[in-house]
Every structure is written in structure tokens, then in C-alpha cells.
């Protein structure tokens, strides 16, 4: 799905240990809209540090995968 919203919260990048022994960067941001609906987005790998995400910034993400962790 495609999502657009205002960044409400930006978590720091953390490293996650995978089952195969490798590590992958992970970063979560919370975005919301004018209807007071918010969702958490998890960014993986190089995308975590590729952009300077700031609170109150409007962002759009294309082709997101919806899952429950």
C-alpha cells in the first residue's frame, strides 16, 4: 500500500540479529494524519539512514508491505 502522513515520532536505528547470524539495521517511525490515526512504519537496511527524518515532516512511502509482528 502507499501511505502519507506527518512524522510524529522517530526512533533511533537499532541492529537486529537475524536467525542466520547476520545483522540488519531497523528503524521505526510513527506517522499520523488529521483524523488522529497513526501507524508505525519499520524501515530496514540502508533506508534507515538514507534520509534525515524529522518530527513534523510530511512523508510518503510507496509500495509498503502490511504485516503484524
Key terms:
mainly beta
What does this structure look like?
It is built from one helix and five strands, in the order E-E-E-E-H-E. With 69 residues, it is mainly beta. The two termini are 17 Å apart. Strands 1, 2, 3, 4 and 5 form a five-stranded antiparallel β-sheet that branches. 6% of the residues lie in helices and 48% in strands. It is globular and about 40 Å long. The longest helix is centred in the last third of the chain and has 4 residues, at 47-50.
Give a nutshell description of this structure.
Helix content is 6%, strand content 48%.
User: In terms of per-residue confidence, which ranges show pLDDT below 50 for 5 or more consecutive residues?
Assistant: none
Distance between the termini: 17 Å
Strand content: over 45%
Q: Give the integer mean of the pLDDT values.
A: 92
In helices, the fraction of residues equals under 10%
Apparent shape: globular
What Rg do the Cα atoms give? 13 Å
- How many helices in DSSP terms? 1
What's the β-strand tally? 5
How does the major sheet shape up? 5 strands, antiparallel
Give the class from helix and strand content and strand pairing. mainly beta
